[in-house]
Amino acid sequence: QVQLVESGGGLVQPGGSLRLSCEVSGSTLDYYAIGWFRQALGKEREGLSCISSRDGRIYYKDSVKGRFTMSRDNAKNTVYLQMNSLKPEDTAIYYCSQGIYWGQGTQVTVSS
C-alpha cells in the first residue's frame, strides 16, 4: 500500500523559509513522478512542482519559481520542498502526490 506523509509545515513570518518533507512508502521515487500541491482556504488545489519520472527534470509553477526548490533523496524515499521568501499568499495546506495517492497534507501559515 502506497503512503505519503508530509511534514515540516508551521507558522512563519513573511520573508521566512520552511522545508517540507514527503516520505513515501510502498512505492519508489525512481519510476513514478511525484509532485507538490497546495490548497488555500476557499481556493482550488494547485500544482507547484513535480519531478518527472522520465528524465528527473523538475518543473515549477511560475508563481513559485526562484523561491521554491524541490529535491529528492532516493535513499530515504523522500522528496522535499524548500520554500524561501514566503508570502502571506503562500498560506495553504501543502500536499505531495504520486499518481492517485495523496498525503494528508501539512499546514503552512505565513503571517506576522
Strand content: over 45%
- Residue-averaged pLDDT, rounded? 95
Order of helices and strands: EEEEEEEEEEE
Task: Return Rg in Å.
Answer: 13 Å
Number of helices: 0
**Largest sheet, strands/sense/barrel:** 7 strands, mixed
Total E-strand runs: 11
Query: Low-confidence runs (pLDDT<50, min 5 residues)?
Result: none
Helix content, binned percent: under 10%
Global morphology: globular
What is the first-to-last residue Cα distance? 40 Å
Output the structural class: mainly beta
User: Assembly type of the shown chains?
Assistant: single chain
What would a concise description of this structure say?
With 112 residues, this protein is mainly β. The chain has strands spanning 3-7, 10-12, 18-25, 34-39, 46-51, 58-60, 68-73, 78-83, 92-98, 101-102, 106-110.
Please name the defining characteristics of this protein:
112 residues; mainly beta; 7-stranded mixed β-sheet; 11 strands; 0% helix
Give the topology, please.
Layout: E1 3-7, E2 10-12, E3 18-25, E4 34-39, E5 46-51, E6 58-60, E7 68-73, E8 78-83, E9 92-98, E10 101-102, E11 106-110
Parallel strand pairs: 2-11
Antiparallel strand pairs: 1-3, 3-8, 4-5, 4-9, 5-6, 7-8, 9-10, 9-11
